[in-house]
Amino acid sequence: MxxxxxxxxxxxxxxxxxxxxxYATHYPPDDNSDHGPMAYLAMHGLGIGIxxxxxxxxxxxxxxxxxxxxxxxxxxESWRTHIGRRAAYAALQHFFSGEIERCGxxxxxxxxxxxxxxxxxxxxFHPLIRLGYGIEFEVAIxxxxxxxxxxxVGDDPEMLASARRRNRVDMAHYVDAARALRDSRFARGSFNxxxxxxxxxxxxxxxxxxxxxxxxxxxxxDVFDTTHDFFALHLVTSSHAFRICRPFxxxxxxxAVVDDLYSIGIATAYLxxxxxxxxxxxxxxxxxxxxxxxxxxxxxxxxxxYSCRAQGLAFDDRAYESVAAGYLAPRLPxxx
Length: 336
Known about the structure:
The protein is mainly alpha-helical. 57% of the residues lie in helices and 3% in strands. Strands 1-2 form a two-stranded antiparallel ribbon. It has a two-stranded parallel sheet with strand order 3-4. Helix 2 packs across helix 16 (299-315) and helix 11 (212-227) packs antiparallel against helix 12 (230-245). It is globular and about 50 Å long.
């Protein structure tokens, strides 16, 4: 459930259904991921009204491309044959929508996500982030879109296998262990290329801590706070998404394996952005600039604001909102 404890309104649901039917998951020139539905839900979760969300959408959607109709049929027996096939997205979204209508979204996610979660780092985390927003606000079409997106980027048996090898290190040395694997080769190429290169060359260690979600999640916040790096921002938003999605895979994979998947995924992504040095800062309490966010034009601004609010509430840690507010202040001058 969202921090505002408010599921999507009928008007927003209609808007999301229309968006899912009209726009593809990626758009040119650099095969960017469509963030629209995530941004709309983030704004809603921050308490921003539908009129402002519509205004944001009207501008944002100009960059998107049309959604191709399904050209094939996917069934419960054949869906796995489409793992890693981007061309199957439309058919997969249609399939998962049917599964949700037939079984309910909780049963559908519980059935299919454990078979896909090992690839959660792919496409800079966007498949799982989209699914996380769908689950957070219980939007069936976005859950179907997220599962379809997770499927087309493929799973990663290597990551699951590395998690099961239980190569662990205590949290106090976790970041040092990740930094020790730093290699200039890992900072070249697209994010997916860097990710594959790391998994093919090294096995990042898994964090060993009483509360991996809290400790590793806070480490991602500290990386972002120090660097304000674009991919470091995604470490934070993906940590939020993984926390939302993990209850649907715990029983199938086991808590220890899921914790390892999470921390190894974060370590891999940290290496992919060059394993930057970072420090934990002490911040005065700052509030999110909600009035300015209502007029935001960058989808990442509203997403980092929402993720930080959600994580801060989940972990009772005011640093999340303070870090987000400090980052957003110069980007949203009206908030100053």
